[in-house]
Amino acid sequence: MFGESRMRWFLLVVVSLGLGLVTGESSYNHYRLPTALRPQKYYLRILTQLENPEDFRFSGNVKIIIAALQNTKNITLHSKDLTIDETQTTVRQISGEGKTNNCVTSTAVNPTHNFYTLNTCQELLAGHVYELNLHFSAELNRQLEGYYRSSYVDPVANETRWISITQFEPASARLAFPSFDEPGYKAPFVITLGYHKKYTGLSNMPVKETKTHESLPDYIWTEFQESLPMSTYLVAFSVNDFSHKPSSLPNGTLFRTWARSSAVDQCDYAAEFGPQVIQYYEQLFGTKLPLAKIDQLALPDFNIGAMENWGLLTFRETALLFSPEFSSLKDKQELSNIVAHELAHQWFGNLVTMKWWTDLWLKEGFATYVATLGVEYIHPEWRSKQLESLSNLLNIFRKDSLETSHPISRPIEMVSQITESFDEISYEKGSSVLRMMHLFLGEEAFRSGLKSYLERFAYRNAEQDDLWESLTQAAHKTGALAKNFDIKTIMDSWTLQTGYPVITVTRDYTERTAKLSQERYLLNTDISRVHRRECWWVPLSYTTQAEKDFNNTAPKAWMECSQTGDRLEKTIQDLPGPDQWVIFNNQLSSPYKVNYDSQNWKLLIKTLNSEEFQTIHVINRAQIIDDILYLAWTGEQNYDIAVQVINYLQREQELLPWKAAFDNLKLLNRIVRQTPNFEFFKSYMKKLITPLYEHLNGINDTFSSIEQQDQVLLKTMVVNWACQYQVADCVPQALAYYRNWRSEANPDEKNPVPINVRSTVYCTSIKHGSDEDWEFLWTRYKKSNVAAEKLTILTALGCSREVWVLQRYLELTFVPKEGIRKQDSKRAFQAVAQTEVGFLLAKKYFMDNLDFISKFYHQLVRSMDPLLESLQLQVFIRKDYNEFKDFVSNSQGSLKGSEKAIRQSLETMLTNVQWKERNYYQFIRAIQQYLKAA
After folding, report:
1. Residue 802, annotated as binding a ligand
2. Contact present, 299 and 202 (Cβ < 8 Å)
3. Is 127 annotated as a binding residue?
4. 169 annotated among ligand-binding-site residues
5. 376 annotated as ligand-binding
6. Which residue would you say has higher pLDDT here, 854 or 309?
7. Is the pLDDT of residue 14 over 50?
8. CATH topology of 1-241 equal to that of 355-495?
9. Domain 355-495 is of which CATH architecture?
10. Which of 7-21, 173-187, 348-362, 411-425 has the lowest mean pLDDT?
11. Which residues contact 544 (CB under 8 A, 6 or more apart)?
């Protein structure tokens, strides 16, 4: 699954039951299902009626073949918000001695864990097989989870069209049919869908047969082939009137990409890219795709980014549709990553599934990592692997430096905890530690370990120790790892502990050695690091000024932990003298930060600020920038040193170091722009950016002549910052582009603004423009047929500096009939919150309307998280921090399910407060001195 920011959310609600047997409160209250029974197969029939907008419902029945592993007097499964017609419930024995009739005496529910328990007349006996038949119905909801409805407007007929779709991960199959809704209960499914013949029915498998409905005129039943054994969260079905773009794989596997008819022309790229990435994975994993068909479906309403249902992958339109006239290179790369991520799950997640959600990262971290390999293989000209690896690391360095972060592999005891795990730690940190392992093991051991893991656990469930075992065997066999090392010991230190280390390198220039020590890096300086005992097994790669061998990412040594888990210091021998630097962590191959002694920093600054700066690998230049700005933030280095490091950027013309710099400077900008000394920061930023802005020919449309694609992304990024700081001609040029667009006779068909700078041009024009400029863009939003363009516009509309415009925009955001879809409302709110003027308005709006916003998102409770996160970056005064702390403590009811986001937001605000109190004047002095010297 690829969340919006890669996340997913739910709320627990009481099961509603129909009339029938006596229903009581269940005494069974463990969070996992009892283990006495195991489903062998599901026969699921669902009838969906989409013709009457006044009454959207579905009804169905499920026949579950169940094997008894132990004697038991009841059947416990999951059901949520389903009306079960208990008059039609049957239980019968279908194999084993003395087939006796059975029946149900009573039922019970546990609303906390969504359990539905049927107490049986006779005991179910171990070794026997039973058939349970249940009839149920429910509303086809609008909550973007379970089995729900979505709509779009057909532009030709100007009519609203309705479709239905499922989203079951992690625990919402129970909203669509009673089931053993845990990943460990894999079983084959035979699915039959009933619907009006004017629609198409899709499910995980190809169609087996279609028949007319026995009583409803113009209705049909479509039965699909029996599926491979799969977990309930991967079951999927849809009734829709979409069109598709066919493609296929060399082995004949059918591959189709579906969308609304008016958007099917935007399916071309995904239809071509998907089969290519599948072929790459078959080669990488040494395991063929076991499916006869794959459908990719672009949905108008979808709460997350995308979902890997086996054989029927579902996407937000932005994540699957690409329009050469409206989508930027950045959009294309993000789309490629998401498609590659979901297709990687067909192996990691679907073929081999985690036993329980504790190991969610096993599939999400893997899909994130191998997607970068797949995209790089198909589009080497993008050089995207380096960018993705760095972006993942920059993300987790921020998130995982919070005390309130969590381990990659964490115990799960409630559904709400599962949904919390769909975050940067499971995805990006999971990916980063797998990349580290790939780099220290080498290609042969990594591939053969994966292949044996997939073969051993195909169609079954596994946990992380199973993967470690397969990889250790491969590593010992190939000699990639010494026999006295094992993957479990090394990797447990990264997956079972929160955080990451900062390694302090203290060189002895006379002895030509270095002492290395580690401790957990924490942003919160109120917490003493002295008493902390975390220890990581760290593969140490390094190079010297004479060698400059950055391509060797194999460890030359290891930082080890004692048997009791204590940190052990490491001494490195044979280093150069005082005239040469040393750089640790070649190409940032492991997720840790490095702090050097002052002489080594001086040597690095000297090289960076000379013509020789490119002799340091581009990823390590990005690493040095990120590390020094973090270390200065927490006071381990001073800002004089940090400013001397980043001054070199005036020479830098590569994307990655600028990405690392902008990610850090953005945080400083959000605080400093609210203070009287912002003028100095502004002058400093102008000075830093101007040489590169001019080198890239400013905001002019030179994109077609740029040969290296990552330079397109660099130009996009630099132009954005240049307009913010009014560098050179950036603002007047942006306004001229926008005026030209406004003067077009048909602005929805013809847009003269260069695609890759549209977000900057729109934002700049709204910021410096009139009310008419805002209305013009809002009209374009409502008329656009391209989801990527709509999102670009949605963000730009928040750039206004007019209080009344922003206030009105905040109110429009949470009114569905205004045309902003529920899934995009977070983006509109964030757009307002991240500006200077908008921040205070958004914060007040959030605090004044919390109950209303909470009801708006209903069960999608973690939709509140992005709203909280957009407010945290600009609070830096202790009084404001305390006010927000009081507010959230008094609003726990409306923020239920967002506890982790609240803790992390408060901690981030506190670290801002600490920075302002400790570093603000030191930072301003450092940039003032630089401006004077320059």
Report:
1. no
2. no
3. no
4. yes
5. no
6. 309
7. no
8. no
9. Orthogonal Bundle (1.10)
10. 7-21
11. 575, 576, 580, 581, 582, 583
With contact defined as beta carbons under 8 Å apart, do 503 and 538 qualify? yes
The amino acid present at 654, given as its one-letter code, is E
309 annotated as ligand-binding: yes
Confirm or deny that 622 is annotated as ligand binding: no
Which CATH topology does 1-241 take? Immunoglobulin-like (2.60.40)
Both structure tokens of 102:
């059975």
Phi then psi for residue 223, to 5 deg, are -100, 135
Sign of CA dihedral 888, 889, 892, 896: positive
Q: How far is CA 30 from CA 34, 112, 178, 435, in A?
A: 8, 10, 18, 37
342 a catalytic residue:
yes
Find out whether 106 and 22 touch, Cβ atoms under 8 Å: yes
- 677 annotated among ligand-binding-site residues: no
In angstroms, the first-to-last Cα distance of the chain is 50
Per residue in 874-921, pLDDT tens?
Answer: 999 999 999 999 999 999 888 888 888 899 999 999 999 999 999 999
Burial class, 455, CB count within 10 angstroms (exposed 0-12 / middle 13-18 / buried 19+): middle
As given in the structure block, the two tokens for residue 785 are 């047929």
Which residue has 């983006």 as its token pair? 827
Fold annotation for 815-934: Zincin-like fold (1.25.50)
Backbone dihedral angles phi then psi of residue 519, each to the nearest 5 degrees = -155, 160
pLDDT, averaged across the chain: 93
**Predicted TM-score (pTM) of this structure:** 0.93
Q: Where are the domains of the chain?
A: 1-241, 355-495, 501-615, 815-934
| Topology of the domain covering 501-615 | Immunoglobulin-like (2.60.40)
Contact of 721 with 684, CB cutoff 8 Å: no
Q: How confident is the model at residue 681 (pLDDT cuts 50, 70, 90)?
A: very high
Return the HEC string of 805-834. Answer: HHHHHHHHHCCHHHCCCHHHHHHHHHHHHC
What distance in Å separates the CA atoms of residue 16 and residue 505, rounded to the nearest whole number? 61
> What pLDDT score does 100 carry?
75
Among candidate residues 4, 131, 145, 342, the one labeled active-site is 342
